Amino acid sequence: MKKVFAIISVLVLALTLSACSGETVEDGTSYLAVDINPSIEFVVNEDDQIESYTLLNEDAEIVAADLDFEGMAYEDALDLYLDAAIETGYLDVNSEDNAVFITTDGEDEAFEENVNTEVRNHLEERGVGAAVMAGGMDDIYHTLAEEHSIGVGRARLLSRAVEIDGDITFEEALEMDMGDIMAILVSDHHNQMQSFKNNRQQTREAMKSALEDEVRSEVEARNQAVEEGNAPEVDIDGLTQDFQENKEARMSEYQSRRKNMKDHMDIPVS
Predict the structure, then answer these.
(1) pLDDT above 90: percentage of residues in the chain
(2) Is 184 in contact with 17 (CB distance < 8 Å)?
(3) What's this model's pTM, rounded to 2 decimal places?
C-alpha cells in the first residue's frame, strides 16, 4: 500500500510541475548537450528542431553570444555552434588537443548516432583535429548512471531537472514522465536565455569579437588550406582513442591552453 501511495504522489507531483511550468512538451523530444568546454544544452523536438536551449557557462555565452538556435534543425545548430567555437579559438585549428563531448538521453539510438556523425563530419570538413566522445566531462553522471542502472545521458538529464526544480529528488525524477522532465528544462531554458539577453549579451558579444580577432588569421589560413586540399588529414578516431587512453593528461593540457588564451585576452575564467 505504501508503494501505491508513493507512486500516486510522484504522479501528482509530475502533473503539478507540468502545470506550473507553463510548458508542454510532446513525446519524441530528445536531450542533447555539447561540451567543448563551452557547454550548451538543447531540447530537440520530434521534428528534429531545437525546441529550446541554454548556455551553461560563461564560455558558451561568449561563443553563442550573437546566435539564436531556437527553431533550427539540430544538425544546422550543431554546425553553427561548432563553427563559432572554431572562430573564437575554443576549438584550435592548429592543435590536436581539442575535445568535444556529446551527451544524449539515450532513448533514440539513431539520434545519438546521427549527432555523433554530424559532429565528426563537420570537424573533418573544417580540418579541425578533435577527439569526439560520448558521456560529457563530469564523472558524477557516470556514477549516478551506474548506481541506478541507466545511461549517462539519462543521468545528466534527470540531474538537470532536479537542479532546476529543487523540490524533487533524483529518485522521484526517475519515476516521472519524460515529457514532464523535458518541460522543466524547456521552461528554464526560456527563462535563462531571457535573462542572458537582458543582462549579459552585449558584454559577451564584445568578448566574442575580441577572441575572433585573435584567431582570425589562423582560421582563415586553415579554411583556405581546406579549400585547396592542403590541410593536414584529420584522424578523429585516432584522436578519440588517444584521448580516452590519456584522458587526465589531455584534459589538463586542454584546460591549460584555454586558460592561457583567456588570460592573454584579460577575460576572467569562470
Answers:
(1) 72
(2) yes
(3) 0.86
